[in-house]
Amino acid sequence: MKKILLFSCLLMLFLGLTAQNYNEYPGCGFAHDSPPKEIIPRSDNCYFYFHDFLAQHNDDMVPQGISRKLKIRTNVVLVQNQNGEYNFRTDNPDHMQFLNGIFSDMNNRLEDLLPESCNCSSADGPVHYSNAHVEFIPNFIELRDAVLWDHMIDPQPWKLNSFDKDYLNQINSLVEQHADYIPGINVIITNEGPALEEFLSTGKSLGALINFQDIYSGQWYSSTAVVNNLDHPAMWHAPDLYLRYLDVVTHQPNAPLATGYQAFAAGGFLHEYFHMFFTNIGHQGGCSENVMNPNGGPTRRRSLTGCQVRSMYQALMGWHVRKYVVCEDVLDFDLTIDTDEVWKNNMRIYGDIIIEEGASLTVTCELHMQPSTNIIVKRGGKLIVDKGLLTGCGEYWNGINVEGYSSGPQSAAGRVELINEAVIEDANTAISMNNTHLGWPARGEHYGGVVYAEKATIRNGYRALEFMKYGVGILKDESEFIDCKFEDLKEAVTIWSDNGVNFKQCTFKNIERRGILAYDSEVFVSDACRFEEMPTGVHLLTTYPNVFSSHIGKENTGVNEFYCRENGVYSYANGNIAPLVIANNLFTGGKYGIQLTGKSFYTVEFNTFEGQYTSVESVACGNDYNLLVNNEINGSGL
């Protein structure tokens, strides 16, 4: 597969000092910015670039009017010698005050951005956001190495690009093994060894040092966004930050750090981080206050255009830096789908997705959801997951809510379709008709959403499906699941007062409680469904007579198989108007094949029982005409 590796030499601060002010390095290694490369799909159903998404969501992809922020983890790597010398130290209060002050200043700037709309057209969306709603969370790591602390060993000092640079890769590999490491953007601070040693021994100013070679020409450097490898590490290099800090505090002791060198460094840090949010160099030389102006200063780099903020969110949603955003509760800001959209991107989503009536969203790639996020399919809306994956970010997300009409036909209900090996995982409840985003009585009136799934998987969550009261005992639910897998769940399927949900050729595996719990409901399970590694396969519970009854198995179709520890089928008080039918099933192992308790009306026939303590137990089932005929029992009691 052709790679899209967008290289760039970056930064571009000269942090050298004179007795009066900070000099500014005027340029970058490239004469002009590199344009984005051609769009190349990751596969037939996944793309790296966001053109289609941006066409619909330039106006709502950046959260506004909320108090919460996305938190971006970053490791500040203090590369010291083997004795813990020659760099900042975490046990030095002055050092930590300076470093923490850089991040405090950065985050304050992002919370109060100056207006500056240069090179950003209102046709592309808002030209200014006063608050970016992101903050950087630093983690300080002391990395001791007898050689790497001195960047004079860098064999490529001319390569001002942190992407796959050998010297930085050596440091990064050690950082990732460090006990204090957390996944984050790595800021690597090294120093020029001979110059630092001379400074510490003589106290001379930086410009008077004989050994200072300034091999990076005063520049810090980063890299552009990596769009085709989400696992690639993100890092940038701040050479000689400690040496220059010592020079300031030694030779300008009365100069306030917070408004001087610390503020200057804060602008430089922002500049380097933001290179990673763009697919080109992104310099804005004509915008005096812009974070991406190559000429920094203590009072500069305090603005971002609306286009730059949207590019940052594009990176945080879809490119390699997104993995460093803290996995925590949803932002109270929604993405609204009000037309037909197809999402072919591997994206991380930070708010709820709302699919409006008459609109559809087709997901062909991956959506990684924050904890507590929902996808809400309103009445008349549709969600299609076609070969796609809906997952969390390391914790459970809420799942999909589907609105319907609790007492009306499902032709106008919200609809979810899972097809072509679609997967939903890591959800509290993957798909629910219990629309908790609505208050009462609206919630009860909006039961009845419909789901069609074929060759799909729901796994690694609390519950797969939650069906609620629908049809007032008359209308049948059209939801159907064919050749689907339900795996590694607390509870697979719960159905309450809802008739007609159909499962064919489905596999239920490693379920902590039950495969299917049908409460005052009719459910169909047939065509070689399989239940294994769970206490109970199908649990049927009736509290009032239903016109309909469940059918577990069906003649002349594939045989359902139950390999359960307690019961294959457990039925309590299933005394409905129509009989419960349990037919054409294989029950292997466990304490009971079938347990029937309380007033019941049933037909149990053409089943095979092997190796249970009791194959069928029928207790206090009343006076109805119950049939237990034509079953084969091998090595089991009755």
Question: How does this model look, in words?
Answer:
This protein is an alpha/beta fold and 638 residues long. It is 14% helix and 30% strand. It has 8 helices and 40 strands. It has a 22-stranded parallel sheet that branches. A 12-stranded parallel sheet has the order 8-11-14-17-20-22-24-27-30-33-36-39. Strands 4-3-5-6 form a 4-stranded parallel sheet, sandwiched between helices. β5, α4 (193-202) and β6 form a beta-alpha-beta unit. The longest helix has 19 residues, at 93-111. The two termini are 62 Å apart. The relative contact order is 0.08. Residues 1-42 have low confidence and may be disordered.
Topology:
Blueprint: E1 41-43, E2 46-47, H1 51-57, E3 70-80, H2 93-111, E4 134-144, H3 166-175, E5 185-189, H4 193-202, E6 235-237, H5 241-251, H6 261-275, H7 306-318, E7 335-337, E8 340-343, E9 346-349, E10 353-355, E11 360-363, E12 366-369, E13 374-377, E14 382-386, E15 389-391, E16 399-402, E17 415-419, E18 423-425, E19 429-432, H8 442-445, E20 450-454, E21 457-467, E22 480-482, E23 485-496, E24 499-504, E25 507-511, E26 514-519, E27 522-526, E28 530-532, E29 536-541, E30 551-552, E31 560-563, E32 567-572, E33 580-583, E34 585-588, E35 592-597, E36 602-605, E37 608-610, E38 614-619, E39 627-629, E40 632-634
Parallel strand pairs: 3-4, 3-5, 5-6, 7-10, 8-11, 9-12, 10-13, 11-14, 12-15, 13-16, 14-17, 15-18, 16-19, 17-20, 18-21, 19-21, 20-22, 21-23, 22-24, 23-25, 23-26, 24-27, 25-28, 26-29, 27-30, 28-31, 29-32, 30-33, 31-34, 32-35, 33-36, 34-37, 35-38, 36-39, 37-40
Antiparallel strand pairs: 1-2
